[in-house]
Amino acid sequence: MVKLSDIIKKQVKAQKEKLAAQKEKTTEETPPSAKISAPSRSSLRISETVKNKEISRKTLPYREAGLNQVRISEKIKEKISQNPKEKKEPFRVHLSGPIKEGDKERQKAYKEVEAKISAFRLAQIVREREQADESPGKFYEESLKKILVFWERLERKENLDFSPLKEIAALFHKALKNSPAILANLAKDYPADNYLPYHSLNVGLVAVALGLGLQWGGERLEDLALAALLHDIGMNEIPKEIYLKREFLKGNERIRINEHPKNSVQMIEKAGSFDENVTRIVFQHHERSNGQGYPQRLQEKDIHPGARIVGLADTFEAITHPRLYHKVRLPYDALSELIDQKKGEFDKIVLKALIQEITFYPLGSFVELNTGEVALVERTLVEYPTRPKVKVLISEGGEKLDPPREVNLHQERLLYIQRPISAPVGTEKSPAFPI
């Protein structure tokens, strides 16, 4: 007699074998990539809980202080003090939650850390500015020394080293971007009987300022700067008694002067390793939009854009500085002359850039206010070119103010500039900048 239990066991065994066969068949059909199952929601919740507990144990001391993390590393501070360019931030502060009103301990802890961060960042900024070359005059003075040496070698007919000028040209746009106050150096006087080195540097300064205003950049701006520094080196092939002559030039003398762009290009090509744009700008910087320039009498469309910029910069700089054959004119008068008397000679877009970038009242120039006070232009605004920020040096009664009074003419609407003037007696001709 067959027992019931044996029958049940056989059925269970058969069922197990059937399930095992089905499982084996499914495994064979399933690709390897599909064998890994995604974790269940419950397992995710468990792992998140464990992770949060670990984080809580690590940050417990900071949470008790009212902060999630406060890390002040003396080693990092020391490292940054030695190297101000170090980008690591020594302090990280994250509140674990909003500070509740009346929670004085957390407020105090937060303020202490915030004060340390502010003090450190302030010291870091000061240190970086002290160590960085941001002085408006330092770049100008160092560049001038290199250019004076270059022109001395040029006059002695020695082999020329153009690398210092290339270095200056490469740094020009950065210097102007970092410190627009460098334009204040345009207000400096220089010897009229040895003007060419100073003139070339100033033309480079004005040309790069115009290029930046016209959104030039990269190699294009660098070529412009280099061409501006080199545009008049051909004058060295002309006798000084001609280009320093006080009287009007005669026929042959004028012809010699008109040859200086060609002389400059010949000297540049002899040295080699210059971009074609540089030579074109140098050769065409005396061409004019109305076709009345030299040496080829080109029309505006045929003139290199860089030559239009250098040509205007050259003329503006010459008008505003001493020459043996003409008196110095104030920047305001020079701009008026370029707009009115020399209408049609220059590209209108470039002329507009000159007005915007140099302004009617350049940095470092002197003005008389409607009150009769004399002031120094300290800062100009492109949006309000006629209402700069000034420093009043002399009162309406003629007394020197000590200390001077700073006035923002854009905010003080009752005050305005009556007229530009020369440097008053008792004040420095150079601008009030650390130059």
Q: Please, what is the average pLDDT? A: 75
Per CATH, the class of the domain at 138-358 reads Mainly Alpha
Do you know the CATH architecture of the domain at 138-358?
Orthogonal Bundle
Radius of gyration over all CA atoms, rounded: 37 Å
Which sheet architecture does the biggest sheet show? 5 strands, antiparallel
Q: For the largest sheet, list the strands in their spatial order.
A: 6-5-4-3-7
Fraction of helical residues: 40-55%
Q: Choose one word for the global shape.
A: extended
Q: CATH homologous superfamily of the domain at 138-358, by name?
A: Hypothetical protein af1432
Strand content: 5-15%
Element-level helix/strand string:
HHEHEHHHHHHHHHHHHEEEEE
Q: Which segments are poorly predicted (pLDDT under 50) over 5 or more consecutive residues?
A: 32-77, 85-96, 125-134, 427-435
Structural class: alpha+beta
CA-CA gap between termini: 121 Å
The count of helical stretches stands at: 15
**What fold name stands as the CATH topology of the domain at 138-358?**
Hypothetical protein af1432
Number of strands: 7
